[in-house]
Amino acid sequence: MVGFRAGDVPPTATVKFIGAGTAACIADLFTFPLDTAKVRLQIQGETKSPANTGHGPVKYRGVFGTISTMVRVEGPRSLYSGLVAGLQRQMSFASVRIGLYDSVKQFYTKGSDHVGIGSRLMAGCTTGAMAVALAQPTDVVKVRFQAQISAGASKRYHGTMDAYRTIAKEEGFRGLWKGTGPNITRNAIVNCTELVTYDLIKDALIKSSLMNDDLPCHFTSAFGAGFCTTVIASPVDVVKTRYMNSAQGQYSGALNCAVAMLTKEGPKAFYKGFMPSFLRLGSWNVVMFVTYEQLKRALMANCLHVY
């Protein structure tokens, strides 16, 4: 292997798994407050929710208004409520949906050098669904923590493991997989839009010689992917958050939740939290994809050095 650079050798599945999981966790550390603000804005307007039990209604206005209100009422730590479950989610979720994407894409192309949009979409849907099936309980706990008003003494969950135990005890093990349907839908859309648009933008920039396969190219591709994903996925993301955080019996299903939102709050309800969602997805994509690309090269360079 002497004389080869890391970029000359395709990264192995192990490198993709480790790189994707690590990069996603780093991205989450940077963007978690925006994700928490998004969740608070998305659930605002519900008449009953386990997160608000024992507390008066708190009004949130805009991204930074929500963040400043949370810091003032609940303290700075509230912005990172649910971080442990969030990192557990990213390590398992991103490793599958991003780490397996190239391999699944190659499976659908059956070894062909030509990769069409259909193969990319199928790969995105497949890895997104697989990731949700694995990581759903961590997502449920993360959302419950982010929605929970942490000021006062009537907190519903007092730690990550306590949340897993409480949900399983009160709602059964099925409670840990609550919202799997809308989450699979949401993540199939997110995964397709995010990975496919990143893939397409990056390929277009490189093939047109506008940019090389380097950091500025990765940054531009990731930011574009973040915007496209937010526009397309916001409605199902709001329904997913509302349904996962709902009290038992509040909604008969995800579709009932969507209908209730439409009739009580109007179509705009489906784009609640759009700005923090875009800021979060845009910045998350930039940090994650840029880190992922660099980690892949660093890990492959280390492998080549060893061998």
TrEMBL record:
<comment type="function">
    <text>Antiporter that exports dicarboxylate intermediates of the Krebs cycle in exchange for phosphate plus a proton across the inner membrane of mitochondria, a process driven by mitochondrial motive force with an overall impact on glycolysis, glutaminolysis and glutathione-dependent redox balance. Continuous export of oxaloacetate and related four-carbon dicarboxylates from mitochondrial matrix into the cytosol negatively regulates the oxidation of acetyl-CoA substrates via the Krebs cycle, lowering the ATP/ADP ratio and reactive oxygen species (ROS) production.</text>
</comment>
<dbReference type="InterPro" id="IPR050391">
    <property type="entry name" value="Mito_Metabolite_Transporter"/>
</dbReference>
<dbReference type="GO" id="GO:0055085">
    <property type="term" value="P:transmembrane transport"/>
</dbReference>
<keyword id="KW-0812">Transmembrane</keyword>
<keyword id="KW-0813">Transport</keyword>
<dbReference type="InterPro" id="IPR018108">
    <property type="entry name" value="MCP_transmembrane"/>
</dbReference>
<keyword id="KW-0677">Repeat</keyword>
<keyword id="KW-1133">Transmembrane helix</keyword>
<keyword id="KW-0472">Membrane</keyword>
<feature type="repeat" description="Solcar">
    <location>
        <begin position="213"/>
        <end position="298"/>
    </location>
</feature>
<feature type="repeat" description="Solcar">
    <location>
        <begin position="11"/>
        <end position="107"/>
    </location>
</feature>
<dbReference type="InterPro" id="IPR002067">
    <property type="entry name" value="MCP"/>
</dbReference>
<keyword id="KW-0496">Mitochondrion</keyword>
<protein>
    <recommendedName>
        <fullName>Dicarboxylate carrier UCP2</fullName>
    </recommendedName>
</protein>
<dbReference type="InterPro" id="IPR023395">
    <property type="entry name" value="MCP_dom_sf"/>
</dbReference>
<dbReference type="Pfam" id="PF00153">
    <property type="entry name" value="Mito_carr"/>
</dbReference>
<comment type="subunit">
    <text>Homotetramer. Adopts an asymmetrical dimer of dimers functional form.</text>
</comment>
<dbReference type="GO" id="GO:0005743">
    <property type="term" value="C:mitochondrial inner membrane"/>
</dbReference>
<feature type="repeat" description="Solcar">
    <location>
        <begin position="115"/>
        <end position="204"/>
    </location>
</feature>
<comment type="similarity">
    <text>Belongs to the mitochondrial carrier (TC 2.A.29) family.</text>
</comment>
<keyword id="KW-0999">Mitochondrion inner membrane</keyword>
